[in-house]
Amino acid sequence: MQRRRLISLAVLRTVLTYAICAISLLALLSFHIFPSSNKLSSSLLDSSYKLPSQREIGHQRWNSELSWTQEFSPPQLTKAPPKKSQKLIGARGILDFNNLWKPPQSRDFVPCIEPSQDYLPPTESRGYLLVHTNGGLNQMRAGICDMVAVARLINATLVIPELDKRSFWQDTSNFSDVFDEEHFISSLANDVKVIKKLPKEMETATRSVKQFRSWSGMDYYQEEIARMWNDFQIIRAAKSDSRLANNNLPPDIQKLRCRALYEALRFSPQIEAMGKLLVERMRSYGPYIALHLRYEKDMLAFSGCTHGLSQAEADELTTIREHTAYWKVKEIDSKEQRAKGYCPLTPKEVGMFLTSLGYPSTTPIYIAAGEIYGGDSRMVDLLSRFPLLMSKEKLASVEELEPFTRHASQMAALDYIVSVESDVFIPSYSGNMARAVEGHRRFLGHRKTISPDRKALVHLFDRVERGTLKEGKGLYDRIIEIHKKRQGSPRKRKGPISGTRGMERFRSEEAFYVNPLPDCLCRKESPSINTSYSSR
Fold it and tell me: What is any one of the record's Gene Ontology cellular component terms (predicted)?
């Protein structure tokens, strides 16, 4: 009996062994011979991130203009992030969708740029103001709006400004190529008389070329400059940037500056239409970040930042700086610059920063920049963390971009539009565009703008590179804590740094167009008793 039980047990073990082997073999064969199901699921995943074709988006002409230049109507482009709470897997685990995209509280601040009751239309002009703008797109935009205010102060007729064609970018664009000239003239009719060109009979009139003093107030213009009308019929401003004080100007002049920038100085219809198309295509991915990745040759050469570059690349940037006459500082210590936070974050550092904030790898990111120095090889680390990196060139066809590609200012204008309309804007460097976009987003309701603390970040990232700090929860918590109050919340414009004097005192002030509060933003009055919803 015992022997029979042992034989039965042995037979049962043998059958089970064969059965397990057969099942394992079938599973192995299924994986290798029938992989189509795996490929299908993978292809479905990939296809969800493919850019909609231009046929799907459509080539219709945009009849309505971008409304982010208007004061009272909500932007036509803006689509609020989905209201339902979604959960995303990020660097810190499960993160609430709304916390990543939710803008700061506006505290009921709204644009208030209408002139006072004492504000009068322009009186008879005393002469003509010619303006030669200088710098890139946003430096020129700020300068043009300051010259509108100056023309009002000195009672001049403003001739449509001449754009800078001699800067680093060598852009041949005229005013009407970049801006809506007719709209600019008509919008300012009650403020300043603006004409397209100097009358022929004035071509031989007496004129003076004057470089206005930087950050000057009303007294300087109404006394020293206005006295020049006694001897000259035409005054030509040799430069336009930073010629007007940020603060301590009459409220009506400050509001005029905002009307000029946010209402009158609208981009040309062609640029606005293309900008809107790019925004719509980015929206097809959902809420997106606009990343102003200022890691371009001109910025690195100007700032002297060479961290992570080869010696040959560093030498090339030094040569560019030495041969650019209007860049005054030639000798720059790159390590010192970076330690003080004066260098743009590298693409690799930006990737680590976004991961630390909790944005998942599926986050759509628009790269608002020109050609990245070092090309695709510099973008590898950022791309490995965030594969959905988009740009003008990826969102639009060569044919669609062809009218703009040879003009740096027009290409920058497209980036500006997509950046202003983004759900989150993050600049890697606080240059002219970063400051202009930040100010515009504050004006439009304090949209979320995260300003990296580059000095603090570089210190942390260097520790990670040296191996004394690991990338993980500890690093992420510190970075999040540092940036809790750097997300575009309402605050008054910062004054000069304590202890500074003379021009350095003005230079240390926060620029007027970076933060239009308090001059152009006021608290909204409480609504009346009727709180019912009404659609428009």
Answer: cytoplasm
Distance CA 160, CA 240 (A): 13
Side chain identity at residue 164, one-letter code: D
Look at residues 70, 277, 290, 261 and name the one whose alpha carbon lies nearest to residue 179.
Answer: 261
How are strands ordered across the β-sheet holding 365-367? 389-390, 365-367, 289-292, 424-427
**Sign of the alpha-carbon dihedral angle for 391, 397, 399, 400:** negative
Determine the 3-state secondary structure of 216 from DSSP: strand
User: Rounded to an integer, what is the distance from CA 265 to the centroid of its chain?
Assistant: 17
Residues 6 or more apart in contact with residue 65 via CB below 8 angstroms: 266, 269, 272
Contact status, residue 226 vs residue 253, Cβ threshold 8 Å: no
Which stretches of 214-283 are DSSP H helices?
Answer: 218-219, 251-259, 269-283
Cα separations in angstroms, 530 against 74, 526, 533, 534: 21, 11, 9, 10
* Helix residue ranges per DSSP H, 1-110: 2-33, 36-47, 54-57, 97-101
In angstroms, rounded to a whole number, what is the distance separating the alpha carbons of residues 425 and 449? 5
Identify whether the C-beta of residue 419 lies closer than 8 Å to the C-beta of residue 290.
yes
Contact 76, 67 (CB under 8 A): yes
Among the residue ranges 197-211, 236-250, 497-511, the one predicted with the least confidence is 497-511
Decide if 174 contacts 132 (C-beta within 8 A). Answer: no
Residues 119, 152: contact at Cβ < 8 Å?
no
Mean pLDDT (whole number) for 151-164: 97
C-alpha gyration radius of the chain: 29
Strand partners, 130: 236
**Residue pLDDT, tens place only, 310-328:** 999 999 999 999 988 878 8
Beta bridge partners of 372: 296
- Name residue, tokens 């204008």: 413
Share of the chain above pLDDT 70, in %: 80
Distances (CA, A) of 25 to 12, 16, 17, 19: 20, 14, 12, 10
Four-CA torsion 335, 340, 342, 344, nearest 10 degrees: 70
* In the chain, domain spans: 99-103+269-521, 127-263
Of 166-175, 195-204, 232-241, the one with minimum mean pLDDT is 166-175
- Helix/strand number for the chain, H first, E second: 22, 13
CA 383 to chain centre: 20
pLDDT at residue 68 is higher than 80: no
154 neighbors 222 (Cβ within 8 angstroms): yes
Condensed to tens digits (0 to 9), the pLDDT of residues 111-128 reads 999 999 999 999 999 999
Q: How many CB atoms lie within 10 A of CB 273?
A: 17
Extract the tokens encoding 398: 């060569």
pLDDT tens for residues 412-450? 999 999 999 999 999 999 999 999 999 999 999 999 999
Instruction: Evaluate if residue 531 carries a pLDDT over 50.
Output: no
pLDDT tens digit string along 205-262? 999 999 999 999 999 999 999 999 999 999 999 999 999 999 999 999 999 999 999 9
| 3-class state of residue 194 by DSSP | strand
